[in-house]
Amino acid sequence: MAGLQITWTVEENWEGKLLREFLKEGKKLSKRALADIKFAGGSIFVNGEFATVRKQLRLNDEVMIVFPRETRSDSILPEKIRLNILYEDNHFLVVNKPSGMPTIPSRDHLRGTLANGVLYYYDQYGIPSTFHAVNRLDKDTSGIVVIAKHRFAHDLMAKEQKTGSIHREYIAIVDGQLMSEKGTINAPIGRTSDSIIEREVRSDGQVAITHYTVLSKSEEETVVRVKLETGRTHQIRVHFAYLGHPLIGDDLYGGKRNKMMRQALHSYYCSFIHPFTLEQITMEAPVPSDMQKWMP
């Protein structure tokens, strides 16, 4: 499989500029990406002819980048797994991940992960890529996962994440009744001293900010819509446990499993500006059946 190809047409504001400036400043190619193209089997063409980054550009020149073929990890083997695809183009694949499916393989889950299924899907359609998750969800959290089809797309989305330009919202069901209809939980999160998995609110942790709005409540549970300002590991789960209202089913953080056998958390909404087309991309994933009976 050949590497990914991307083509741009030079606009008036780049006429007379060097190709290096066009790629780094105009198209946001990182220094590493340019080095990969130069030294790892990629190519740059202007109007169909091989070019170096020192070439001076003219209006309406056609610039084509051929990225080197990506190398896959031996730890992720393609596996036929049904994917619930919400959106796809040449740069991104967005799926609705079911609960119970890890995003990537681990020592305890070598197969059956989203990454395994995506690589199989890529092979069926001749997509020359490895697995680039823009965001990850815990194994038992369901919902939207954005996957970049190549490193360049992943790099651009990482920059969007740092600037807060990717908007994600969740539905969670917590134990008990929250007193406020809206609120913000601002409490730093760090790893517990005796676990490599569990997190907790601690003074020396990383800044973590969670916003929530109550959608409905009963005597025993509250359904909330959650928006993250930061993206710490287990942030929603830790923050609501910190309030004394752990997610139902989340036995790691004090939730009981008498009503659900997994934490009641679903990533239902995602919106971002497409870094190549500059369009607003918005997706929603329906709340899964095991959470439906609590929904308003």
Question: Helicity level, as a percent range?
Answer: 10-25%
Which residues sit in consecutive blocks of at least 5 with pLDDT less than 50? none
Query: How large is the radius of gyration?
Result: 22 Å
The chain-level structural class is alpha+beta
Label this structure with key terms.
single chain; alpha+beta; Structural Genomics Hypothetical 15.5 Kd Protein In mrcA-pckA Intergenic Region, Chain A; Pseudouridine synthase; four-stranded antiparallel β-sheet; 6 helices; elongated
Protein described:
The protein has 296 residues and is α+β, with helices and mostly antiparallel strands. The protein folds into 3 domains: 5-66, Structural Genomics Hypothetical 15.5 Kd Protein In mrcA-pckA Intergenic Region, Chain A (Roll), CATH 3.10.290; 71-163, Pseudouridine synthase (2-Layer Sandwich), CATH 3.30.2350; 169-267, Pseudouridine synthase, CATH 3.30.2350.10. Helices cover 18% and strands 29% of the residues. It has 6 helices and 16 strands. It has helices spanning 19-26, 31-39, 114-124, 151-162, 235-242, 289-292; strands spanning 5-9, 43-46, 49-50, 62-66, 85-88, 92-97, 132-133, 142-148, 167-175, 182-186, 189-191, 199-201, 209-217, 221-228, 265-273, 280-284. Strand 7 (132-133) and strand 8 form a beta hairpin. The termini are far apart. The relative contact order is 0.13. The mean pLDDT is 93.
